[in-house]
Amino acid sequence: MTELTTDRLRLRRWTDADREPFAALNADPAVMQHFPAPQTREQSDALIDRTTESFDRLGFGLWALEVLETGRFIGFTGLSVPRFEAHFTPAVEVGWRLAKEAWGNGYATEAAHAALAYGFGPAGLAEIVSFTATTNVASQRVMSRIGMTHDEAGDFDHPRIQPGHRLQRHVLYRITRAQWASTRKD
């Protein structure tokens, strides 16, 4: 599995030591406010297990995210294949989930840039999407900062969220390899 490094962050393989802080992150109502419910320890561990399997099968997944200077685990950022059917699937999504203490530092943007570079580089993807509940304005800002474009015609009702639920409506963002390449500075 490839490890990625940015100026301030390491995107790396998950370890057993990540399970407890990740479960705490997933149980935090503030972190999970744009999801139907916080996750149990079992659900949190299952997510780590699925992403580890994704790296083995696809060569990419959700990397554990740590701050280089301190080695502190702060969440994940990476690439995943949505596990539901929608008009834009099959697709590869870039996503992130960070501990509340890590918010406001630009970590999600920095790590998502690295994930996109891996997706359009070694993984050879043609397009990457991202989506979130309409209420998650902070994640929508990250999507814009990393060069993604809101596909308003692609907005959708998430099929795994109960009809009428406040989080059912989702926005869809996209970026192609060509769009990403045109924004590169190096």
UniProtKB/TrEMBL annotation:
This is GCN5-related N-acetyltransferase. Keywords: Transferase. Residues 9-178 form the N-acetyltransferase domain. It comes from Kribbella flavida (strain DSM 17836 / JCM 10339 / NBRC 14399). InterPro entries: Acyl_CoA_acyltransferase, GNAT_dom, N-acetyltransferase. GO terms for molecular function: acyltransferase activity, transferring groups other than amino-acyl groups. The keyword RNA-binding does not apply. SUPFAM superfamilies: Acyl-CoA N-acyltransferases (Nat).
